[in-house]
Specification:
The complex is a heterodimer of chains A (386) and B (349). Helices cover 38% and strands 18% of the residues of chain A. Chain A is α/β, with parallel strands linked by helices and 386 residues long. In chain A, helix 4 (85-98) packs across helix 14 and helix 7 (160-174) packs across helix 11 (286-295). Chain B is globular.
Chain lengths: 386, 349
């Protein structure tokens, strides 16, 4: 397999972007990535999008979006794995370039979530859960993650303060991210006193709905060197699945798909979690960050909450997590999230993280963990400085 | 230019508190009280609708009109989202009740919450064109908000009436401006009882863009700035929005205070900024300039620059003041009574 790298990245505006449509958002991010990489063509496109059909009534995105990039004719396909769609698109691009099939590939993600009502958005997102056994019985994603939180608290003594510490940290990091939807700090007290959504999760435990797109250019190391732009290598890619239905799992305090994806990515990379300097994890809810930090092997079960509370995962901690602000503060346009995670690691490894968000000590190895639904799918990438 | 020769308001006595509604739906009352600055809202009792509110407000306007003959009123225009009939005008009943029939033009206006200011705009234009000596503009609503929807915490009832003329003015309309775009922020389809809305989209892109657009445009037309006005009145879907648009434009709390009724009145839809204007006229002094700016979803804003005349001191106490209607002699109802009054309970045929 050829050595694969990321050579240019682009984000659209993120937030409640009323004046841009799905195609506008994607085109903005895509053109920014192309400009950053300095490439004069693409060989293919993989675009992650969870459900353009339900959010804005638009499917057949790969063709539409290549057309609006001025590249009709380009081989392109939409990749869908719920909220892991973006990370899976990066993985497809990685395989495409690594296999020698294509040389310059765009991996992108997009979601336009605020053109419909909150109820319609909740319905659209709930299609990532088991319709027959979960949604039919009234479960929503806040409800499913609330059950995971309750189980985790009962089994390991995870506390309200630990959940709040995730939101406080991520908003602190996001306050330095110019792309973040909610770039403001919150206190633990504010989190704990915010409106209850699904006990024990309050609204400040939840990531928002977001309009946004993100794109990266994936190519070979040889081409990246010729382009002369900063690049980072993707040295490991792993994906995994689990039962989509929470009730079917042996243990709802861990996310097996993330464990499988991380193990495979580490095996390919020839690294272990101990080699990783920083990670972007899928904190769709505060409890998710705690569970994932354990599922990828960085902390033993029940130990991530205390570590986060103690500041170990802060920007200046031993193991910085979600330096971008995570889904919590940066926003969560579900199809774009996995690509944006890769962008944050790219920025950190190339020393380009903005506004004091740069992790000190020139990090060498970074990791992304993107997740679909309540953990029915996950994808992990290990990236290394060139 | 033409202006107001008589003004009046009417509000129901009944109120329901935010906590009472929140209790029923398991909603977070403090977030409505703090986030939207709403404390309570008016509730129309069973025998009150847009027509009866309009008649009462018009009677108050006539009291302040210097004894004009209702038969000289050449037009009656009522702006509302809650005309009792889909087909049959509200204005005919009102005109009949005040003795203004049969030689009179009548139309019911609809433009979401700016239907009332549209009526004012057109009535002023008729008088300005010397087509008639007086024209009556009414802004009235018994607003709808679906149970448990955010709107239920604000949808309220009230009316304001203005008799426009060209002599004996209480306030002259120095300038008017209308500002409109096509905007799907809030709507009610035919045969649907409750409106739908676009949630947070109804803020920045809809309400604020249009109220600012209309306010800036009229100030530019008039060569005026916020400091030139004694008072300002904005459409008030909740307590927060009119305060924010005022501050964003450079107005102060003191300038909006007299007409800022929504924290305890709620959103009277078409009635909102017109009722706010009546409360402002109640305290205004001769020579004061008042900026008024409505907002209606769909979407648009009408702005007016009013200059108060000497006659205000003669007429303000000829009818009940709006603040008295808002603050005195109130009856607080529980959610069950409110649900009965607002016909939210399914009855056997």
């Amino acid at each position: 397999m050829r050595e694969v790298c990321i050579v240019g990245v682009g984000m659209s505006q993120w937030g409640e972007v009323w004046r841009m449509s799905l195609r506008d958002l994607h085109t903005q991010a895509a053109l920014r990535a192309i400009a950053a990489a300095g490439v004069d063509h693409l060989d293919s496109l993989y675009v992650g999008c969870m459900t353009g059909g339900l959010f804005v009534g638009q499917e057949h995105l790969a063709s539409l979006l290549t057309d609006y990039m001025g590249m009709a004719g380009l081989p392109a396909v939409r990749v869908e794995s719920a909220c892991a769609s973006g990370g899976m698109a990066v993985r497809q691009a990685f395989i495409d370039v690594g296999s020698g099939t294509s040389d310059i590939v765009m991996a992108s993600g997009v979601e336009k979530m605020t053109d419909c009502s909150g109820g319609d958005a909740t319905y659209a997102l709930a299609t990532a859960a088991d319709q027959e056994y979960e949604v039919f019985n009234g479960a929503t994603f806040p409800g499913l993650y609330a059950m995971m939180a309750t189980a985790h608290m009962a089994k390991y003594g995870t506390t309200r303060e630990m959940l709040s510490a995730v939101a406080v940290k991520n908003h602190h990091n996001g306050s330095m991210n110019p792309d973040a939807q909610y770039p403001f700090k919150v206190s633990a007290e504010q989190v704990a006193k915010s409106v209850m959504v699904a006990d024990p999760l309050h609204i400040l435990d939840c990531s928002p709905i977001t309009d946004g797109a993100a794109a990266v250019i994936v190519t070979t190391v040889d081409i990246a060197k010729k382009l002369g732009k900063p690049y980072v290598k993707i040295i490991g890619s792993g994906a995994g699945t689990d039962t989509i239905q929470l009730a079917q799992r042996d243990d709802m305090t861990t996310i097996k798909a993330a464990t499988i994806a991380a193990d495979r990515a580490f095996k390919m990379a020839g690294k272990t979690i101990a080699d990783v300097n920083l990670v972007e994890v899928h904190d769709c809810f505060t409890i998710a960050e705690i569970v994932v930090a354990e599922s990828i092997g960085r902390y033993k079960p029940g130990k991530a909450g205390p570590a986060i509370l103690a500041g170990e995962t802060a920007l200046d901690g031993k193991f910085p997590m979600n330096t971008s602000g995570g889904l919590k503060s940066k926003g969560h346009p579900v199809g774009a999230t996995g690509v944006a995670q890769v962008i944050e690691i790219y920025k950190q490894l190339t020393g380009q993280a903005e506004n004091g968000r740069q992790v000190a000590g020139s990090p060498k190895v970074g990791m992304t963990q993107n997740m679909g639904g309540s953990g029915g799918s996950s994808v992990v990438h290990i990236m290394e400085v060139a | 230019m033409a202006g107001i020769v008589g003004y009046g308001a009417h509000l129901p006595r009944h109120r329901i508190k935010v906590e009472e509604i929140a209790k029923v739906w398991g909603a977070d009352a403090p977030s409505y009280k703090k986030g939207l600055m709403l404390r309570e809202k008016s509730v129309p009792p069973p025998d009150m609708d847009t027509i009866t509110l309009s008649v009462e407000a018009t009677k108050n306007a006539l009291k302040r009109s210097g004894g004009i003959d209702p038969a000289d009123i050449g037009a009656v225009y009522i702006g509302s989202e809650s005309h009792p009939y889909a087909v049959k005008p509200s204005g005919t009943t009102v005109a009949e009740a005040i003795g203004a029939t049969p030689d009179i033009h009548c139309a019911d206006f609809e433009f979401a919450c700016k239907a009332g200011s549209e009526a004012m705009f057109v009535a002023l234009s008729h008088v300005d064109a010397k087509a008639m000596p007086y024209a009556l503009a009414i802004a009235a609503d018994t607003s709808q908000g679906a149970p448990s929807d955010a709107l239920e915490f604000s949808a309220a009832a009230g009316a304001a009436a203005f008799i426009m003329g060209s002599k004996n003015l209480i306030a002259e309309a120095l300038y008017t401006h209308s500002y409109m775009t096509d905007m799907p922020d809030f709507w009610r389809r035919e045969h649907r009882f409750y409106p739908m809305h676009g949630g947070r989209f109804t803020g920045e892109e809809a309400y604020f863009a249009h109220t600012k657009g209309a306010s800036k445009a009229i100030m530019e037309k008039a060569g005026m700035k916020p400091a030139d006005f004694k008072y300002a009145v904005f459409h008030q879907p909740n307590g927060k929005f009119p305060q924010k648009v005022a501050f964003d434009l450079g107005f102060t709390q003191q300038q909006i205070d007299p007409g800022w009724l929504s924290p305890t009145l709620g959103n009277t839809y078409s009635g909102a900024s017109p009722i706010g204007l009546t409360a402002t006229l109640d305290v205004a002094q001769p020579g004061d300039l008042i900026l008024m700016c409505s907002y209606g979803s769909g979407a648009g804003s009408d702005s007016f620059v009013w200059k108060v005349t000497e006659r205000i001191n003669e007429v303000r106490d000829l009818a009940v003041r709006t603040r008295k209607l808002l603050e005195e002699n109130l009856i607080y109802v529980d959610y069950g009574t409110y649900a009965k009054y607002r016909r939210k309970i399914k009855m056997n045929d």
